[in-house]
């Protein structure tokens, strides 16, 4: 009996189809993107810093309650009203006894209930940070003729932006919520 040739499978076609499917799935799937706050934390010091006594007048306490509602120094607030209140507090310079003595000694304290919605924390943090951004933009416009976003990557603009950040550093602190 003569030997029969076995039919061969064309592997080149299968490789082409597998390659096309691979490309299809790579193009059609999306990569997960992280959401959150981009923040650079300072390095941990070798020696713990000394506790500096702070006058309560110079700390603006922002509390986020369990239900996501907001209070500033015990008064109910809407998140969109927060930037104006923060700016008023920071730039008081001792005029109003309910607000800070000066920008240099003022601090913003955010206390968040552990069960508060994360979205509310993000909104509050964003509104507080926008107050600092507004202060920096006003200072940059007055002294350098442009806002922080308008600074380019030149050496002079980097130095100017650094001077603005030094004048108005971000002074946001967080703590555990106080017991009620």
Annotation keywords:
37% helix; single chain; alpha/beta; 180 residues
Short description:
The chain is an alpha/beta fold and 180 residues long. Helix content is 37%, strand content 12%. The N and C termini lie far apart (97 Å).
Structural class: alpha/beta
Number of strands: 5
Point out poorly predicted stretches.
Answer: none
Distance between the termini: 97 Å
What letter string, H or E per element, gives the SSE order? HEEEHEHHE
User: How are the strands ordered across the major sheet?
Assistant: 3-2-1-4-5
**Main beta sheet strand tally, sense and closure:** 5 strands, mixed
- Average pLDDT, to the nearest integer? 85
**Number of helical runs?**
4
């Amino acid at each position: 009996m003569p030997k029969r040739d076995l039919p061969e499978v064309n592997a080149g076609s299968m490789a082409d189809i597998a390659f096309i499917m691979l490309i299809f799935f790579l193009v059609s799937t999306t990569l997960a993107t992280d959401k959150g706050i981009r923040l650079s934390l300072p390095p941990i010091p070798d020696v713990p810093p000394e506790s500096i006594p702070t006058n309560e007048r110079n700390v603006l306490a922002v509390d986020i309650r369990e239900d996501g509602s907001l209070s500033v120094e015990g008064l109910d607030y809407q998140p969109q009203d927060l930037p104006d209140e923060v700016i008023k507090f920071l730039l008081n310079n001792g005029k109003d006894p309910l607000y800070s003595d000066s920008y240099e000694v003022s601090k913003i304290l955010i206390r968040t209930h552990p069960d508060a919605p994360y979205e509310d924390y993000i909104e509050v943090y964003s509104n507080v940070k926008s107050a600092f951004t507004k202060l920096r933009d006003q200072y940059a416009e007055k002294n350098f003729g442009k806002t922080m976003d308008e600074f380019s990557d030149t050496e002079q603009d980097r130095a100017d932006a650094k001077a603005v950040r030094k004048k108005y550093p971000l002074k946001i602190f967080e703590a555990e919520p106080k017991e009620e």
